[in-house]
Amino acid sequence: MAANKPIAKQAINGFAWSSFNKGFAILFKLVFGVYLTRLLNPEDYGLMAMTAVFFAIAQLFVDGGFSSALIQKNNATEADLSTIFIFNFLAALFLYLLLFILSPFLSDFFDDHRLKNIFRVAGIGILISSFGTIQSTILRKNINFKYIAIVSTAAMIISFAVGILLAYYGFGVWALVAHLLAEKIVRVPFLWFLTNWRPKIIFNMTSFKTLFSFGYKIFLQNALNSVFKNIYFVIIGKYFSIIETGFYYRASSFHEIFVQNITNVITQVTFPLYSTLNNDLDRLKEKYLLGLQLAIYILFFTFTILILVSEPFVLFFLGEKWSQTIPFMVLFFFNGYFLPFYMMSNNVLNATGYSGIALKIDVIKRVITIISIIAGFSFGVYGLIIGYLASSFTSLIVSHYYSNKVLGFETKQVLLKYIPSILVSLTIMGITKLFLISYLDGVYLTQLFIIPLVGFLIFILIGFILKFRAQKELIMLMKAYLKR
Questions:
Q1: CA angle 433, 439, 444 (to 5 degrees)
Q2: What is the average pLDDT value for the chain, to the nearest integer?
Q3: Could you give the CA distance from residue 141 to residue 84 in angstroms, rounded to a whole number?
């Protein structure tokens, strides 16, 4: 048992700091992101949406999956770190020059000449961020989420200040470009200051090949995920109006703030934890099942409340000009019922050396996504989002099937963990829709306070009456943490 304590303590501290970081990010982006949105128009966000897929793919090529490979490797050497640092920079330089050259053709593709300079200026961020990739990886590998939280907080505060200032003075889309660049400019020096490691002029081909043999599978997973997540911006930007693209982009940014940030907390903590336990299957099974049960219990409630408050939030804080964002936003929040648990399951496969299976699952997901895009295109943006949700749900089921085989669980045993939380979520939705929202129609600020409060009381009450194990485990963990 004594050997378990350092890992458990690291995991708890890592989760606490990572949760604080993401929680602060959510709060900060809500407050200042809302103000920035009020200052700008849907068209400004539509322009940025059209560039999203290209920057996302470029950033993934710069990393190449090597960050995950370094985390997974138990004894990463100086040669490993410096080799990947040099690769990151050279890849970033090549991709920025390529994007610079292609920017006129990309602006012609979208039929908007403004995009040429946006690509060229915002693309500088690819170069800047390449200098901090290894430092960030070292902090994640050591589960040092305290320093990561410090870096993220500083970068967020300064970048939003820059963006809001320029938006206030009427710079439009360039306020968003400046916000993007400022975040990277602040992040990199902080990462260098908070880590002792410095690169050396070493490029070891053996290190590169060893890390590439694992990392390329992670890279392909991430690349597929990023392409298919951001390809919607290209499709909507090309075939629908720029304003509708802006509504979709803003709704997807709330998906990023809540669904993706919460998923990232789980991913960043569970992958290094599972990697540490990859030689002890019994302990890995124990930690995975407990973590899954707690995550389902907490996140199903969280996303149920977010779905219910989407309309009053948008109408009260963003205003009527953003009302078309609401249905997109609600649909995106449904992905919170699938994505975090899919990533937990995938992390088991990657941490135990089955990244090839995880890649196959991703391919299956993308095939379904392609089919859903073709089927949903004629139904407009709604059809595209629903298709995206269908692919997420299917990949969750398939991922559970394979991770359960690796861990020795029956699929039915794991899927049954979802039933109580599904029933609680439906109960909360039913009661609030019937007895609260109908009586508080148009009173948006009151809805924002009452719906979460009533939902939480229902959530706790049902948990006590039915004696949910997850609720008991959560209370025990909180008590243990507070006693420390």
A1: 85
A2: 85
A3: 15
Torsion, Cα of 293, 470, 337, 260 (10° steps): -80
Backbone φ, ψ for residue 57 (5° rounding): -65, -40
DSSP assigned state of 336:
G
What amino acid occupies position 127? L
Could you report the per-residue pLDDT of 356-381, keeping only the tens digit for each? 888 888 788 888 889 989 988 989 99
| Beta carbons of 29 and 250 less than 8 angstroms apart | no
241 contacts: CB under 8 Å, gap ≥ 6: 46
Q: Is the pLDDT of residue 463 over 60?
A: yes
Paired tokens of 168: 């206030």
Q: pTM score, two decimals?
A: 0.77
Q: Which three-class secondary structure state does DSSP give residue 467?
A: coil
- As a whole number of angstroms, the distance between CA 418 and CA 416 comes to 5
Token reading at 35? 């103000």
In angstroms, the CA 241 to CA 433 distance is 33
The separation between CA 168 and the C-alpha centre of its own chain, rounded to angstroms, equals 29
Alpha-carbon gap, residue 440 to 433, rounded angstroms: 10
Query: Is the separation of the CB atoms in 184 and 122 below 8 Å?
Result: no
Rounded CA-CA distance 348/403 in Å is 6
Residue 403 identity: S
| Angular region, 443: left φ>0, alpha ψ -120 to 50, beta rest | beta
Highest-confidence segment of 22-26, 64-68, 207-211, 382-386: 382-386
Buried b or exposed e, range 106-115, using 16+ CB within 10 angstroms: bbeebebeeb
pLDDT digits (tens, 9 = 90+) for 293-344: 888 888 999 999 999 999 999 999 988 889 999 999 999 999 999 998 898 8
Residue 393: in which H helix or E strand, if any?
helix 380-407
Q: In the structure, what pLDDT confidence band is assigned to residue 1 with cuts at 50, 70 and 90? A: very low
- Reference 151, options 266, 59, 24; nearest CA is 24
- CB atoms under 10 Å from CB of 170, counted, come to 10
Angle at 161 between CA 158 and CA 164, to 5 degrees: 150
Please provide the distance, in angstroms rounded to a whole number, between the alpha carbons at the two ends of the chain. 18
